[in-house]
Design goal:
The protein is α/β, with parallel strands linked by helices. The chain is globular, with a radius of gyration of 26 Å. The chain is built from 22 helices and 22 strands. The longest helix has 24 residues, at 31-54. A hairpin with a 2-residue loop joins strand 13 and strand 14 (456-458). The protein is 39% helix and 11% strand. Helix 1 runs antiparallel to helix 2 and helix 12 packs antiparallel against helix 13 (395-415).
């Protein structure tokens, strides 16, 4: 008998239900909205269980649902936070976003994905203070189902934490306590997610890995699955029988489990899989399906026959099972008959000139009031966009509404003493999606949402080919020149970020895709420069995440991506400025990349890091905007907070190189909050100028 199962699934609801109810709860913070949030989360969890039952999966996984972040879920469960009380859902969100005198915890990106997680930073007071998992377990058992809990392993959890191996013994003990509570409910197996198996592990981590599984295997049967492609350097895991491994078919050894379905959007190569699978009893997905959209069938774009989303992956897994059993029907034959893989040739112009770093002149103003790019999108804009999408207003009416809001945004920035103006990005729902819609060869979805962090969801474009991009930004920026003579900063998505925040079919030619994107952006900048613009911000928040997950492959990637970024700037005149923006990254790993980028000013996130991540920038020649306040938190800081942060900034970086800005775009904030914040900042800067000058 050939059994199937899947590993993890999308978490947000088919129509972004979780986002709607979570944000309503944040906004109104009352018992009625809390009940609605709990109800919608229960509905999503039951849907996850339902499709596993319908497809007769071997394991019915629970524990893969999260309100905000799965690493934070573990932190709240075992109390690896500065906390003494029970952690309910309100307090859970306070650790993520701030509130009730709780400072938002530090955040960075999950390995080389765009999924953000809250960094664990305290293991001194471990105890079970959160029952989310155990409540889900009891509710599932009430349905008459004995599930297999899915949990992030303590080994990977510690690898992601700030304290690393501190109190490892206590962490194992608290995990044993979790397992014993689970086992009391009659559970016989547990599924551990081990994303660190995608990395090359040193001897310490190998020993910890084996020690952990040796200890807990005495209590319960274990299945181990990497979140990403397995690193073959970790062959040591085959030498032990403490667990069952779920690995991709190229890595199969002795175990019955074998993964066959990829987690990207490529249609599964069924013929290749059937050729490689021999005498397997259990087949599964290659790894985590959490970060792909729900359903391809509700989309309306070209080239769908080459792709599959989450529900299509399930169907393909079931089809493979039926083919192995030799039980197929006419619909299965039709699917196989129409089976096609995208094989269109990708053309690239080889006549390109290598770009050289320019010595640009830096704006000499002190304490420049700078902004990352976006400003709040009010209800009028959101309603107008919806009306335009449903054809209730025509295109020109929609454009006029956006232009009116851009004009008002300029007036507000001038009133708030901004030295550099931005247009607010009102025409853009998402920076990468906006550029993708204007580049031929790239498909965009209507409902293809995936989670970035919390309730921040994006719709990654799908790159099959990259041909040309026309009139991406110039139609907006030419309008701006007519309404002001002040300095305007042009905001452009960088080629590395467009690539990383998209699904692309042929990963072997990702550098060629990136280069073609850089050419399109370079000519976009050239057009705008000819219109008189001289400040360009090329956003690259995902440089580190676009590098290979294994550092041994970094040298080639770094050289290729660095060339692509600098190629964007090849037409920029020597007396013009180039800005870039990185967010929530580990800069120690990529500082050599940053120093070789053809940029003058870099804006980063430092507020949650309490400016400790600025030490690495002391010896660079870059001007720096470190993000003196956190736009991802609903808290409105007081004037003392800004004064403290600015002085911390000055202590770390020469004040001649400092720019004052938020840590990210302001799209999710509102003007009431910003008016208070900017008034405080201007007051502090005025006092500083009186002190120093």
């Amino acid at each position: 008998m050939i059994k199937t199962y899947i590993f993890d699934s999308p978490n947000i609801g088919k129509y972004r239900d979780l986002k709607k109810y979570t944000e309503n709860f944040w906004k109104y913070n009352n018992i009625n909205n809390l009940k609605k949030l709990l109800m919608i989360s229960k509905k999503i969890k039951f849907e996850k269980i339902l499709y596993q039952i319908i497809n007769n999966f071997l394991y019915i996984n629970i524990g893969d649902f999260s309100y905000y972040d799965k690493v934070l879920d573990i932190s709240c469960m075992i109390n690896s936070l500065n906390n003494l009380d029970i952690i309910n859902i309100k307090k859970y969100f306070h650790f993520a976003r701030g509130g009730n005198e709780i400072t938002p915890c530090k955040m960075t990106k999950f390995f080389n994905t765009n999924y953000h997680y809250i960094i664990p930073d305290n293991s001194n007071n471990l105890k079970l203070l959160n029952n989310f998992l155990f409540e889900d377990l009891k509710n599932t058992i009430k349905l008459g189902i004995l599930p297999t809990p899915l949990i992030l392993s303590i080994v990977s959890y510690l690898f992601l934490s700030k304290t690393k191996l501190n109190n490892f013994k206590k962490n194992i003990e608290i995990y044993i306590l979790i397992l014993l509570k689970i086992k009391k409910n009659g559970i016989k197996e547990i599924h551990f997610e081990e994303p660190i198996l995608c990395c090359k592990l040193n001897s310490n981590w190998k020993n910890i890995f084996i020690l952990f599984y040796k200890i807990i295997s005495k209590f319960i049967k274990i299945i181990v699955t990497p979140s990403f492609n397995f690193n073959n350097d970790n062959f040591f895991i085959y030498n032990y029988n403490y667990y069952t491994l779920n690995l991709f078919l190229n890595n199969e050894k002795k175990d019955n489990h074998i993964s066959v379905i990829s987690n990207d959007l490529n249609k599964t190569n069924i013929f290749l899989i059937l050729k490689n699978i021999k005498n397997k009893k259990i087949i599964s997905t290659e790894n985590n399906l959490k970060y792909i959209p729900y359903n391809l069938k509700i989309e309306k774009f070209n080239n769908q026959k080459y792709l599959s989303f989450f529900f299509q992956k399930i169907n393909e897994l079931k089809l493979i099972q039926k083919l192995l059993k030799k039980k197929i029907n006419s619909f299965d034959l039709l699917y196989l008959e129409n089976f096609k893989i995208y094989k269109k040739k990708i053309f690239i112009n080889n006549d390109f000139i290598k770009t050289k770093k320019k010595n640009n002149k830096i704006n000499k103003l002190l304490f420049i009031n700078n902004n990352i790019g976006s400003f709040p999108q009010n209800k009028e804009i959101k309603i107008s966009r919806k009306n335009f999408n449903f054809y209730f207003i025509n295109k020109q009416e929609y454009i006029n509404i956006l232009k009116e809001n851009i004009f008002l945004c300029f007036l507000k920035q001038i009133k708030l003493n901004y030295n550099i103006l931005v247009h607010g990005e009102f025409e853009r729902t998402d920076m990468v999606e906006y550029f993708a819609k204007n580049i031929s060869g790239i498909n965009t979805t209507k409902y293809g949402w995936v989670q970035s962090y919390g309730t921040r969801y994006v719709k990654p474009p799908i790159i099959l080919n990259i041909e040309t991009g026309k009139n991406i930004t110039d139609k907006w920026y030419i309008f701006l020149k007519k309404i002001t003579k002040k300095n305007i900063k042009v905001i452009i998505s960088g080629p590395i970020t467009i690539l990383k925040w998209s699904f692309f079919i042929n990963k072997k030619i990702k550098f060629l895709f990136c280069f073609k994107l850089s050419e399109i952006i370079a000519y976009e900048i050239l057009k705008l420069q000819n219109q008189g613009f001289n400040l360009f911000q090329i956003d690259e928040p995902t440089v580190k995440e676009c590098l290979d997950i294994n550092k041994k492959n970094w040298n080639l990637d770094i050289n290729n991506f660095l060339f692509c970024f600098n190629n964007c700037t090849k037409f920029v005149k020597i007396n013009n400025e180039i800005h870039s923006h990185f967010c929530y990254s580990l800069f120690n790993d990529i500082i050599n990349f940053i120093t070789k980028m053809n940029i003058d000013i870099l804006t980063i996130e430092s507020n949650r890091e309490q400016f400790e991540n600025l030490n690495i920038f002391k010896k660079t020649k870059l001007n720096l905007g470190a993000g003196i306040y956190d736009v991802h938190s609903p808290l409105i800081p007081c004037k003392i907070y800004f004064k403290k942060n600015i002085f911390l900034f000055i202590k770390k970086i020469n004040f001649l190189k400092i720019l004052i800005n938020p840590d990210c775009g302001l799209k999710t904030r509102n003007w009431y909050e910003l008016n208070i914040v900017f008034a405080y900042i201007n007051n502090v800067l005025k006092n500083i100028n009186n002190i120093y000058f």
